[in-house]
UniProtKB/TrEMBL annotation:
Residues 1-22 are annotated as: Disordered. Residues 7-21 have a biased composition (Low complexity). The chain crosses the membrane at residues 54-74, 238-261, 268-291, 457-478. This is Secreted protein. Keywords: Membrane, Transmembrane, Transmembrane helix.
Length: 485
């Protein structure tokens, strides 16, 4: 009857069409029915394979992104350390110790000037003593700053302590010489022999002990700066290359994930993954650019700022000691030849021209020579440099006139020339050096500041980029995985 279920025959294969009982199966038909395949069912292994591949591609993408941000973090940290050492730690320490050298040399020069002036230049003598006291305070402050910046470097701290101890002995000797000189009431020119003897002890201590130790402090700190610059020049480009390589790997993983999802789920594009790729490109370009700029700023700060500042600082200190030799030349007749020779040595250290004696050097400077070597040989390009050369030439011309007066036995006039035109010429020359140093100092601070600002922006954006990429990758993958739950 239609609509009535037919009883299943014994041995009938489940799912096989029912056969009326009045037509039993033959043995052959029964065997064929048992061998027939059952209807297709969804494969559990096929259903679990797609999520596994999606998760594998997602894991590779996340790993590549993690490596990208690790390279960015290490690169930014390395570049930041270089900028900090050169711009905030060892670099300022070098400048401070170079300033210490200048302060110490000017202390000795002011004492020599004060002893030379006598009662005829009472006002100027008091000014020289006041400047000596000012330089002493500046030297002590520079030593304290150098001590603070030395950190845990015991050798450097011992050197600073040695300079402090020696400075105390120098101040005692110089103070005794100034006190006896004031009591003697001598005319302008050499003071009594007892005063000269005390000053000899003081200036020997300064020139043979304190100034070399101060210069050693500068060399030690300068070595740290050079080593830091060299390390960063080798490390930062490698880390920048690592950022680019890991960024390309992350983009490749994102592309593979995008293609797989598009083919398997018949979707052209996953907007979240496309946005993740855009953020990754921005991170690679921005991060690599920031590291490159930081390295360039570090190089600029050292080559166009720090190195010239240090060179000009040394030139100022040596020049100041050089003009102090002019007073010592008049002050101590027994050592006059020695001080004339040291004046020539220091002149050639700052602006080198081949000459066998001071007269030959004066002649070459007066001829308008421009092929200088020495400390300032590479620093005299440009308008500021030419002003330095012109002022230096004027100072050497004043020294020529001054020594001619001494050779003619006109000592009172020589003292007046030393304290008048010669000193004025030196002060004008020193001002040009100071202006040149300030220009390079400004370039140094601009470069260091630019590099630090760029890295600061990178550090601020990194957490947002990491969190944003994590959310975008999850938003692109999670909806597809939900379809298999």
């Amino acid at each position: 009857m239609t609509g009535q279920l037919t009883a299943q025959a014994p041995g009938q294969v489940p799912g096989q069409a029912a056969v009326p009982a009045s037509h039993p199966l033959t043995p052959a038909q029964l065997a064929d029915a048992r061998l027939a395949p059952s209807p297709a069912r969804p494969s559990r292994s096929g259903r679990s394979g797609v999520p596994g591949r999606v998760l594998a591609l997602t894991g590779a993408t996340v790993t590549a992104l993690a490596l990208l941000f690790a390279a960015l973090a290490v690169g930014a940290g390395s570049a930041g350390d270089g900028l900090r050492v050169i711009g905030r730690d060892a670099g300022p320490q070098v400048v401070a110790t170079a300033g210490l050298y200048f302060g110490l040399s000017d202390m000795d020069a002011q004492v020599a000037d004060a002893l030379l002036m006598g009662e005829e230049y009472a006002e100027r003598r008091r000014a020289a003593v006041a400047r000596y006291e000012q330089r002493r305070s500046e030297a002590n402050a520079a030593l304290l700053k150098a001590f603070e910046l030395s950190g845990d470097d015991r050798a450097e701290r011992r050197t600073i302590q040695s300079v402090l101890d020696g400075l105390g002995r120098y101040e005692q000797l110089a103070g005794q010489a100034l006190l006896l000189d004031a009591r003697s009431g001598h005319a302008a020119g050499p003071p009594p022999a007892e005063v000269v003897g005390l000053y000899r002890q003081a200036t020997d201590l300064m020139r043979r002990v304190l100034l070399p130790q101060a210069y050693n402090l500068t060399l030690e700190s300068g070595t740290i700066v050079r080593a830091t610059h060299d390390d960063n020049s080798a490390t930062v480009p490698l880390l920048r290359a690592a950022v680019i390589v890991t960024g390309l790997a992350a983009l490749a993983c994102l592309a593979l994930l995008q293609l797989y999802l598009a083919r398997r789920f018949r979707r052209l594009v996953a907007p979240a993954l496309l946005a993740a790729a855009a953020v990754t490109v921005a991170a690679v370009v921005g991060g690599a650019g920031a590291l490159g700029r930081a390295q360039a700023d570090l190089h600029t700060g050292k080559r166009e700022g720090f190195d010239p500042v240090l060179t000009v600082a040394r030139a100022r200190a040596i020049s100041n000691s050089m003009q102090g030799d002019q007073s010592r030349y008049l002050l101590d007749k027994e050592r006059a030849d020695t001080y004339e020779h040291t004046f020539l040595d220091k002149s050639q250290t700052v602006f080198y021209l081949p000459a066998g004696n001071l007269g030959g050097y004066h002649a070459k400077v007066a001829e308008g020579a421009t092929d200088f070597l020495g400390l300032m040989g590479v620093q005299v390009a440009g308008a500021d440099g030419q002003r330095v050369v012109a002022a230096y030439r004027t100072f050497q011309e004043a020294d020529t006139t001054f020594r001619a007066l001494v050779r003619d036995g006109r000592h009172r006039e020589a003292v007046a020339a030393r304290l008048g035109p010669v000193r004025e010429a030196f002060d004008a020359y020193d001002r040009t050096l100071l202006a040149l140093s300030q220009r390079h100092q400004a370039a140094f601070e601009r470069a260091i500041g630019s590099g630090e600002r760029g890295l600061d922006i990178l550090w601020r954006l990194l957490p947002f980029a990491i969190g944003g990429l994590g959310l975008l990758v999850a938003a692109g993958v999670w909806p597809r995985l939900k379809e298999y739950r």
